Amino acid sequence: MRKICYEFFAIEQVYPDIEINVDKFSVTEIVDMFSVIEQVYKHIVLEVGTYKVKTAKHIIFEFEVGTVKNLDITNAEEEELVFDEDVEESGNRFELCLVGKFLTEKNLNVRVMKSKLADIWRPAMGISIKTLTEGLYLFQFFHKDDMQWMMNNGPWSFDNAILVTNTIPTWEDPTKVPLNEAEFWVQIYDLPTSFMTKAVGRQLGNFFGKFVSYDSTNNTSIWREYMRLRIRLDIRLPLKRRKKICRRDRTEFIVTCKYEKLGDFCFRCGVLSHTERSCKKRLNANLEEEVK
Question: Would you say the pTM of this structure is higher than 0.90?
């Protein structure tokens, strides 16, 4: 009696819509009940063994019931639940939002940061800056022009720490959006005048990073000191500083790249995502010297 009650209790816990009271059923009814449960919940296999009936003052049922196989709620959990179209979220509620982080190892004063950026950007329709997790922020704009202006005029920084942002795709969790790239304006020096063209700028931009745009306003005079490009950088990779160029007559020259508003970065390995203080390359070098 106790064993069959345990088996029924397990079923009741997983499927609350089944209510079983063994005392109310005869032996035949209980056996039939197993069959019904198997039909309704097809992923449950119940094995009922032999049973004995003892007669005393009252009839007591003793069952030798096999184990309940595949009694696993994960089967039910893995079944797909498809919502009706009218209950699905329409559009992207993060359409006017950016998620971002600062490339720094310092503890920032979040309150001052919010006030400072809002004062610098001065969006016409306002802005809301919220902390998602430690070091990760949500920048909510209220007009697309305000957000676009902020994206086009970066990079932005606070306390000399570069702000890396990204848009949030539809249905994406803001905390899982990758923050590995940032856009910078760069100046290319030592280019001959004949090479000061957008076509050359595109190739150079794709060498130093990913070409985004060419500053044509920097091309208003006959002679220019440098070419100005906007490129997208992978902050996990070392910054490139120069490139050798070969003319058609096989003569060579070297151009150098200077980054605008670069902020803190590692002088040891040239990576933006950390400073020299926490550079693993420097720390490993120090360890090797100590071993020697």
Answer: no
